[in-house]
Amino acid sequence: xxxxxxxxxxxAGTEYWADIPDxxxxxxxxxxxxxxxxxxxxxLALHLETAGGAxxxxxxxxxxxxxxxxxxxxxxxxxx
Length: 80
What we know:
Double Stranded RNA Binding Domain, four-stranded antiparallel β-sheet, 2 helices, 4 strands, 29% helix, Type II toxin-antitoxin system HicB family antitoxin, TTHA1013/TTHA0281-like, HicB-like
């Protein structure tokens, strides 16, 4: 099993949202961090299904730029 690094973000007046920097457009949101994470798992499954195997290789958080992580409140590995 492999995993991507996912990022939880939140701005004032918004719900939490999560994204996978290695998969542009693979995002989710939720009223709680846990909801955003659960919704991202579903978004990832759909993204992988529709991409037909043409997805970027996962990177570690150490390989991500400061810009990609600048407003992160949490990072976590999401398995696929």
